[in-house]
Model the fold of this input.
Amino acid sequence: MLLCPAQNCAKCPRLVEFRTQNQNKFPSYHNAPVESFGSLDAEILVVGLAPGLNGANQTNRPFTNDYAGDILYPALKKFGFAQGNYGRIKNDGFELLNVRVSNTVRCVPPQNKVTADEIAACRPFLQAEIAAMPHLKLILSLGSVSHGAVLQALGYKKSAYKFAHGAEHLLPHHNITLIDSYHTSRYNINTNVLTAAMFDKIIARLQQLL
Ligand code: URA
Done:
């Protein structure tokens, strides 16, 4: 199974329509499904929501040039999970260490909102990603949409594992721990739902759990 949809994937009509609009409006952007970032040998998989219009959809690297990446990547580096300087572009030389970063839905959605059908259409890629990570121990879900998508991708009932910031769910059939965090979105940071200190605690916890 492919780890990422084909660059001209047509599974989601709404996302294809948005892609076509963006190809006209922003011809220099990537405007296609965005591949995950980091090695498949990593023990940690971070799963976000979907590329941002002027972020990952432009740069072709998850969370890159997205506000959410300005919180995520420095925190990973602070705790030894990255090296180099995060420069908001794909060829900045920034490297993830023992972490891979992916998204629930690989194409940019209008208004940063994905539908249940789009999550379902992209599920095989998340499943393939997880299956292709032989050393995977921890999945960090950024936000409740990612949390639900990971559970469904692995065949667990969403109702049995409630999303809560800082919650840790051992997934018995996979021996993987799913950790929840509020998403590092601009909205969550601006409204203090998530602070840099709260997110640091989550990343420090990943280190302890390994
Ligand atoms: N950029 C991404 O790639 N994913 C998110 O969830 C948010 C921004």
Observations:
- The longest helix spans residues 116-131.
